[in-house]
Amino acid sequence: MSIEASAKRTRVRRSPEAARENILAAAEALLIEKGPQALKLADVAAAAGVVHATVLHHFGSIADVHTALMERMIRQLVAQILEADDPDEPAATRAESGARMLFDAFESRGAARLAAWLELTGESRRLTLVREAVNEVVANRLAPKGLDPAAAEDLVLVSVTLAMGVGLFGDSLAELMGKPPGRTRELAANLLRGWMAAFSAGLIR
Amino acid sequence: MSIEASAKRTRVRRSPEAARENILAAAEALLIEKGPQALKLADVAAAAGVVHATVLHHFGSIADVHTALMERMIRQLVAQILEADDPDEPAATRAESGARMLFDAFESRGAARLAAWLELTGESRRLTLVREAVNEVVANRLAPKGLDPAAAEDLVLVSVTLAMGVGLFGDSLAELMGKPPGRTRELAANLLRGWMAAFSAGLIR
DNA sequence: GCTTCTATTGACATTTTTGTCGGTAAGACC
DNA sequence: GGTCTTACCGACAAAAATGTCAATAGAAGC
Question: What's the pLDDT tens digit per position in A114-137?
Fold first, then answer.
C-alpha cells in the first residue's frame, strides 16, 4: 500500500570485485550482529543493498558466500597478527597480544560461530586456506622465537581449538553456571599460560 | 506406484513417556550419524517409526525435541561420570577417566555438535539443567578430593569448554593442518595435565 | 551517438520444513 | 461388550529459503 510501491530502484553497477566485497562486508556485519544462521540469501542481499539474485550471480550459492566470508576473516586475522607483531616487545607480551587477538576474533568478531556453522553443514572441508594461514603465522611469528616448527603447529592447533570453544560456548556456559561473562576466557588464557609454564619448567612432555 | 501405496500402517500405542523416549533415542542415533542439522521433524519421525505430527504432539515443536535431547544427553553423561567413579582408584587415574568420558561424549557421541547447534539457534539459554549437573559432579566427584568448590567449578568450566572445542573442531582442524585424527584431543589432554601440574607446582595463580 | 558487455533486476518455480486439524483406533477401565 | 481417553495418523496449509531466467540498464570502448 506504499505510495512508492512500484518505484524502480536506481542501480549501482560495481566491478565484480567491489560487488563481492560489498556483499561480504555486509555479511560480516550481519554475522557479528545476529550469528551465522542469519546469513540467509535474502538477508545478506538486503544488508548489502542488492537483490538476492545478485548475490547468487557473484557467488553461485549461499554456501559459497559462507566459505568466502570465512576465508576473508581468516585472512584478516592472519594479517592482523603479523602486522601487530613488534619484534622489540618482550616475548611474553607478544604471546599475550597474539592470544588476545585470537580470542577477540573468535569471540566478538563471530569467527567461532561461523566456523561452527560451516563445520555442522559440512562446508569446512573446503577451507584449504587454513593450512597456509597456519604456516604463515608459524614461519613469521613463532619460528623466529626459536620454536620448533612442529611444536609451533601444535601450539596453534590447541590455541585455536580452545579459542573457538571459548568463543562459541564461553559466555553461555558461564551464564548457565552463574559465573560472570568473560570468566571462561580468563580461565582459558590461564590454562594456556600454565601449560607453557609447565612446559618450560619441564613438568610435562 | 507402489502396490502398497494406500496401505494403512498398524499403530503402536505407547505411554507418553515411552513415546518420548522412543523419539529421543531415534533422534540421538540420527545426531551421532548425521549431525544436528539432520534433526528435522520428518527425519526424526521416520527414524522413530512415527508420523511427524506425532512428534509434535509429544514435544510441541522441533526446538523442544532438540533441547530435550540435549538434556537427556547431559543426564546420561553425569550419570556415567558418577557411576564409573571408583574411590579406590588413585586420584590421577580418576581424573584421566573423567576426562576421557568428557571427550568421548562431546566428540563421538555428538554432544558438542548438538550444543553448538543450540548455541547458534539461541536455544541454549533454556538449558537450566546445566547448573545442577555441574553441582552434582562437583559435589560428588571433585569436592571429596579436597578441591575447593569454586576451583572445582572453574575446572569444570574450562574442561567442558575445551572438550567442546575439541569435539566440534578437533578432527577437522587437524585434517586441515595435515595432522592425524585424534591429535587435537591428545594435545588438549596434555594441556589440562600441564595446567594441573603447573597449578600443583605453584607456577601459576 | 552507437555498440557491446555484463552487473543487476523482478518475477516465477521449486523444494524443504514446520505446523494445524479433524478423524481414527488402541488400550484401559467399567 | 461398551465407553472413554488420547496417542496416532493423513491431508492440508503456509512460510521460508534457494535457485532459474529473461529482460534491463549502467559504463566503457569505438
Answer: 999 999 999 999 999 999 999 999
Asked whether the whole model's pTM tops 0.85, one would answer yes
For residue range B27-45, list pLDDT tens digits in order.
999 999 999 999 999 999 9
Domain borders along chain B are: 13-60, 63-200
Say whether residue B99 is in contact with chain A using an 8 A CB cutoff. Answer: no
Determine contact: A91 vs chain B, CB below 8 A. Answer: no
The CATH class that applies to domain A63-200 reads: mainly alpha
Task: Tell me the CATH number for domain B13-60.
Answer: 1.10.10
Per the listing, cell 556415567 goes with: B80
Percent of chain A residues topping a pLDDT of 90 = 77
Angle of helix A62-83 relative to helix A129-137, nearest 10 degrees, comes to 10
C-alpha to C-alpha distance for A76 and A86, rounded to whole angstroms: 18
Give me Rg for the CA atoms of chain B: 20
Q: C-alpha cell of B90?
A: 588413585
Per-residue pLDDT of A44-92, as tens digits, reads 999 999 999 999 999 999 999 999 999 999 999 999 999 887 777 887 7
A197: nearest CB among B156, B164, B198: B198
- Domain A12-60 fold: Arc Repressor Mutant, subunit A (1.10.10)
Q: Which of residues 39-78 of B touch A (CB under 8 A)?
A: none
Instruction: Mutation target for A interface from B30, B157, B190: give the one with most A CBs within 10 A.
Output: B157
DSSP state of A122: T
Distance from CA of B110 to the nearest CA of A (A): 11
pLDDT confidence of residue A84: 83
Handedness of CA B8, B9, B11, B16 (dihedral sign): negative
**Fold: same for B13-60 and B63-200:** no
Instruction: Flag if B161 and A153 touch (Cβ within 8 Å).
Output: no
